[in-house]
């Protein structure tokens, strides 16, 4: 036997019966649940708990807000026409007093000129990142000439 207090409010949408949210009254989907859901969102469950705790009515039980438009429609509001566009005002820029430019300082060489090396003078051998690999005396004999191959 089922008591009337335990029955949940239902809605019929497109031939399918849905339970209504206890807080807002919207349809609650029951897909994938073993026990029937009473709320459409977690926040509505929390709000309903707080309302019961403080003895306040649920959102669906509250009367409609007074700010809702009447059934006759909105009241006509007088609209003022826009004023005609004024012509843009052009303000001339103030003239700057001309200042005499200061005389420029004589320019000299900014840095000393480095002479180019003379190709007739032999240059000092450039330093390498790594010193040449030292070879033993027998190796220098073998590899002194590229045409001669060492005996294998």
Number of helices: 2
Amount of helix? 10-25%
Anisotropy-based shape: flat
Strand content: 5-15%
Question: What this model shows, in words?
Answer:
The protein has a domain of 52 residues. It has a 3-stranded antiparallel beta sheet, with no helix packed on it. The N terminus is likely disordered. The protein is flat and about 110 Å long. By secondary structure, the chain is low in regular secondary structure. Helices cover 12% and strands 7% of the residues.
Question: Helices, strands, pairings?
Answer:
Elements: E1 10-13, E2 16-20, E3 27-28, H1 42-54, H2 137-142
Antiparallel strand pairs: 1-2, 2-3
Features:
little secondary structure; three-stranded antiparallel beta sheet; disordered N terminus; single chain; 152 residues
């Amino acid at each position: 036997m089922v008591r009337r207090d335990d029955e949940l409010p239902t809605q019929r949408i497109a031939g399918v019966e849905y339970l209504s949210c206890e807080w807002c009254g919207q349809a609650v989907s029951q897909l994938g649940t073993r026990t029937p859901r009473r709320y459409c969102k977690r926040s509505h469950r929390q709000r309903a708990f707080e309302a019961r705790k403080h003895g306040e009515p649920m959102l669906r039980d509250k009367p409609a807000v007074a700010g809702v438009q009447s059934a006759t429609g909105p009241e006509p509001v007088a609209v003022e026409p826009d004023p005609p566009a004024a012509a843009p005002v052009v303000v001339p820029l103030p003239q700057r007093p001309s200042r005499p430019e200061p005389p420029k300082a004589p320019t000299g060489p900014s840095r000393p000129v480095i002479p180019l090396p003379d190709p007739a003078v032999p240059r000092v051998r450039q330093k390498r990142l790594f010193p040449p690999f030292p070879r033993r005396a027998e190796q220098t004999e073998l590899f002194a000439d590229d045409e001669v191959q060492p005996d294998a």
